[in-house]
Amino acid sequence: MGNDIDSILNKAVKYHNLDEKEILCILEEKKESKRLFSVADEIRKKYLGDGIHLRAIIEFSNYCKQNCLYCGLRKGNKYLTRYRIEPQEIIESARKAKNYGYKTVVLQSGEDSYYSVDKMTKIISTIKDLDIAVTLSIGEKTFEEYKAYRDAGTDRYLLKIETTNEILYNKLDPKMSLTNRMQCLENIKKLGYETGSGIIVGLPGQTLKSIAKDIMYLKSIPIDMAGIGPFIYNPSTPIESTKENFFELSLKVMAIIRLLMPDINIAATTAMETVNSRGRLIALQSGANVVMPNTTEVIYRKHYKIYPGKICINDSPSHCRSCIENKIKSINRYISMGKGSHIKQKRGIK
Ligand code: SF4
User: Fold this and answer.
1) Digit-coded pLDDT (tens) for 307-321
2) Residue of the nearest CA to atom 5 in ligand 1?
3) Model confidence band, residue 343 (pLDDT cutoffs 50, 70, 90)
4) Does the CB atom of residue 110 touch ligand 1 within 6 A?
5) Fold of 31-334
């Protein structure tokens, strides 16, 4: 890396602040990004230590009313076998997750109206009685719906912005609006959720400049949790095909986010491991401090197919738990025993 990059990284380490141009400069650097990754790892260690938070994902429905061009769950995908898990079974999965030692469950689905506010709030409050943190990742809702889920005890909400480039957003997410998505994130934040967001890196038509703007946007919210995933082409979608691997670029985006937001929770994402067999471990050594193992039962998980080649689709929840534990030990890190809230909000968690 050249002197320019060195001085930008030094500034980021000192002030945790960069402007769009400086972020773009790091993204455009073609050579080794080793220093960026090691600096991000040092910042993670300084602010958060070596503990890794595990979040158990329960993918409870792969129905979605939206039609995002890049996503296998899109309504128009006729090749996907659809499933819904009934509330009692979702609660049972959460109970099992607790027994495996997880302190957080992430309830994830497409945008599926089958789960009314009444159904969801009952699921949430019953799971909260297990004394574990609840994260929702169920898409765009009204302010009143977000409020109802928060009142029922939900601690965190994940809503990826995907991209902040309006032209690209309109092209990739038909009938959705970037303004509304940003409003949703604003509402989530206002309601006191720990707020998670992120982008997809490598979307067709995306530029490094727009990624730099995305990073600035995430910092402006500011988010409490980040999830950055590489774009993986799904042949069951209408999006243009690419064989390009966006692992390295995703890792750079993730590492820059760590420099700018030193104490937030950042996931080593499943998508990263799908495009690189050591993806999650590399991410954990480049700024990440969270892993989200899949706790969905085997009969369902193979149908939650946002992109092809997803890891662990034939593994049981108990296998995933011990597998990730061994991987974490192999890099001399350990599993945190707490609920893993963003440290600024530790006292607020229920
Ligand atoms: S990205 Fe989300 S909202 Fe869009 S189709 Fe996929 S699951 Fe639905």
Assistant:
1) 998 888 888 888 999
2) 74
3) confident
4) yes
5) TIM Barrel (3.20.20)
